[in-house]
């Protein structure tokens, strides 16, 4: 009963309501008009929707937001045109509307790019100017995709941004940003980011970046996120963070090329996104991709630049790259060597192959290439099995060409040869000449301090490891490294070592910490033992190897100087107990200066838990150092 009453009330209300009755009558009239045939003008049909909202007519811009109509015959002709003349002639044959004019211009820009035509002749053509005027007058009728393509095409054709037609198209694009699909928005962002000069403000670019930051969750495909990270991400840190989150979500779908582009984008922007790098590394190892040589080199570069250690990825890169070494150019070899040197990762088969490649293709290696190979080998303290042939190649490349090198690279090269114990007297003389040294000794910057320290190391190598070197040498006032290394905060290992050494010495005067030497190295601690291995007051005795010696007495007969060197985790190669080249040279120089070296590596020290264990460990180390010296 209630349902029947409700139905009768609805019928009475529909007939008695003027608005509903009017809509009903006109809706029926509309159906009769449609039955006669299609309307001749867009405004002919009257619908119930338009009558119920008489003041809300569909704007032309809203029409442009709807799905585009089916392709017309003219658009098929435009796409099949093969010359610019054919396209421009269409403006004379047909009544072209704004959307079709935009499609013609987009097609023109593609032809110019494909056939490498001169765009100036097209821009000056009267028919092209007519197309611009049509778009200028009816810009709101251009569909969204065509509008974005039009803006890019006008830019590529070289139309000046100050032209009224160009400004109107740009303004129309800015008005429609909220209604563009994300694909169109990303396409627009890619073009604008590449076309706007760096450092020049762009309102369109700012608006596009804001919309990307707000709509990043709409990204659904890998290609878009990879493109935005590599080309647009550097312009907006906030957007880059969101793109990293989206990349983490899509990482399992990355192809090798996608992985390369994402890794390189992170490296170039120096963004060490640990979760994303871990995800990329996991999928690189789990999926058995076949990588091209360029992808392998770019991955090595990215991991090296970001200093991200992933041994399984490194092993995969080395295994895939090793059989392809003969095909590499000298530049590729240098790139890979530098990347692995930054990572402190040494793969013996791969590095041996690189050394042999250098020997076999010596004529293709420039002196700069050879210098970078030597720098990488020195950092890792790598000595190839073909060392005679390799160093002969390096020395031949250096002969009579040292003046061609940049002074800083030359100093790095000679220092690296000192690390590898392959420096000749002529090389040492070149960098220790007063005219060459002055620029480094007088440089107060941090970089200048670093190179001054390297000069001191080279000076020490000349004195201690090159018997036939006759000079010149650095002046005495230039020696000593304490002021060049800044105020170093003691590490946990150094602090713990000091505490235990004070217990071993029994008297603060019998041990000295942070000892500066004239060979450019800081000792963590120094002790003097008599013939019975009992500590003596350190300050009482002369120390020829120290930059500032306080004592005046010579060492007693049978006494020995002990230098304690604490080796931290960064002093070693990755996953190895081999010292890096710099620290291997430090140990040699300290030992050659008359000290007995007591090594305290972190991997042994951290295993000792109690003070008693650490004290016994140091006493045992001291006893072994003395016994080894006596056995010689």
UniProtKB/TrEMBL annotation:
Span of domain RAP: 562-620
Top-level taxon in the UniProt lineage: Eukaryota
Keywords recorded for this protein, A-Z: Kinase, Mitochondrion, Transferase, Transit peptide
InterPro entries found in the cross-reference section: FAST_2 (IPR013579), FAST_kinase (IPR050870), FAST_Leu-rich (IPR010622), RAP (IPR013584)
UniProt KW Kinase keyword: yes
Cellular component aspect of the GO annotation: mitochondrial matrix; ribonucleoprotein granule
Signal peptide feature range: none
GO annotation, biological process: mitochondrial RNA processing; regulation of mitochondrial mRNA stability
Localisation per UniProt entry: Mitochondrion matrix
PANTHER family xrefs: FAST KINASE DOMAIN-CONTAINING PROTEIN 4, FAST LEU-RICH DOMAIN-CONTAINING
Family: Belongs to the FAST kinase family.
The protein's name: FAST kinase domain-containing protein 4
Organism: Podarcis lilfordi
């Amino acid at each position: 009963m209630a349902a029947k009453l409700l139905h009768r009330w609805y019928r009475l209300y529909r007939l008695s309501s003027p608005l509903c009755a009017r809509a009903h009558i006109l809706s029926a009239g509309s159906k009769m008009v449609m039955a006669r045939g299609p309307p001749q003008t867009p405004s002919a049909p009257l619908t119930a929707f338009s009558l119920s909202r008489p003041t809300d007519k569909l704007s032309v811009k809203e029409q442009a937001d709807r799905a585009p109509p089916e392709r017309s015959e003219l658009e098929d002709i435009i796409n099949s045109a093969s010359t610019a003349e054919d396209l421009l002639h269409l403006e004379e044959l047909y009544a072209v509307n704004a959307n079709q004019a935009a499609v013609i211009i987009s097609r023109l820009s593609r032809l110019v790019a494909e056939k490498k035509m001169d765009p100036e002749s097209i821009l000056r053509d009267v028919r092209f100017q007519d197309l611009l005027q049509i778009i200028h007058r009816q810009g709101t009728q251009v569909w969204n995709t065509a509008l974005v393509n039009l803006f890019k095409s006008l830019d590529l054709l070289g139309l000046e941004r100050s032209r009224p037609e160009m400004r109107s198209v740009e303004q129309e694009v800015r008005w429609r940003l909220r209604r563009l699909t994300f694909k169109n928005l990303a396409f627009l962002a890619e073009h604008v980011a590449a076309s706007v000069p760096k450092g020049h403000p762009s309102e369109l670019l700012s608006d596009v970046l804001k919309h990307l930051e707000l709509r990043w969750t709409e990204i659904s495909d890998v290609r878009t996120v990879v493109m935005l990270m590599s080309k647009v991400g550097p312009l907006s840190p906030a957007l880059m963070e969101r793109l990293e989150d989206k990349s983490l979500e899509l990482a399992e779908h990355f192809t090798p090329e996608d992985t390369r582009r994402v890794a390189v984008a992170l490296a170039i922007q120096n963004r060490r996104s640990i979760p994303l790098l871990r995800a990329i590394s996991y999928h690189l190892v789990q999926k058995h991709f076949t990588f091209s040589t360029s992808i392998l080199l770019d991955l090595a570069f990215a991991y090296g630049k970001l200093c991200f250690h992933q041994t399984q990825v490194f092993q995969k890169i080395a295994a895939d790259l090793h059989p392809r070494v003969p095909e590499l150019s000298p530049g590729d070899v240098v790139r890979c060597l530098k990347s692995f040197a930054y990572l402190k990762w040494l793969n013996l088969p791969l590095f041996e192959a690189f050394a042999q490649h250098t020997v076999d293709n010596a004529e293709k290696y420039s002196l700069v290439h050879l210098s970078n190979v030597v720098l990488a080998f020195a950092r890792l303290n790598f000595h190839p099995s073909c060392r005679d042939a390799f160093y002969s190649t390096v020395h031949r490349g250096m002969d009579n060409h040292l003046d061609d090198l940049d002074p800083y690279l030359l100093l790095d090269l000679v220092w690296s040869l000192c690390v590898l114990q392959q420096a000749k007297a002529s090389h040492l003389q070149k960098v220790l000449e007063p005219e060459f040294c002055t620029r480094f000794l007088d440089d107060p910057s941090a970089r200048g301090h670093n190179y001054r320290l390297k000069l001191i190391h080279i000076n020490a190598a000349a004195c201690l490891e090159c018997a036939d070197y006759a000079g010149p040498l650095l002046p005495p006032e230039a020696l000593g490294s304490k002021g060049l290394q800044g105020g170093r905060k003691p590490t946990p290992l150094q602090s713990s070592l000091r505490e235990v050494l004070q217990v071993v010495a029994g008297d603060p005067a019998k041990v000295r910490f942070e000892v500066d030497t004239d060979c450019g190295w800081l000792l963590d601690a120094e002790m003097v033992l008599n013939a019975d291995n009992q500590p003596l007051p350190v300050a009482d005795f002369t120390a020829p190897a120290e930059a500032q010696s306080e004592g005046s007495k010579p060492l007693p007969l049978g006494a020995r100087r002990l230098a304690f060197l604490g080796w931290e985790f960064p002093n070693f190669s990755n996953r190895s107990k081999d010292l890096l080249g710099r620290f291997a040279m430090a140990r040699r120089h300290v030992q050659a200066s008359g000290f007995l070296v007591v090594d305290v590596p972190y991997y042994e020290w951290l295993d000792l838990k109690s003070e008693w264990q650490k004290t016994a460990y140091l006493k045992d180390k001291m006893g072994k150092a003395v016994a080894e010296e006596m056995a010689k």
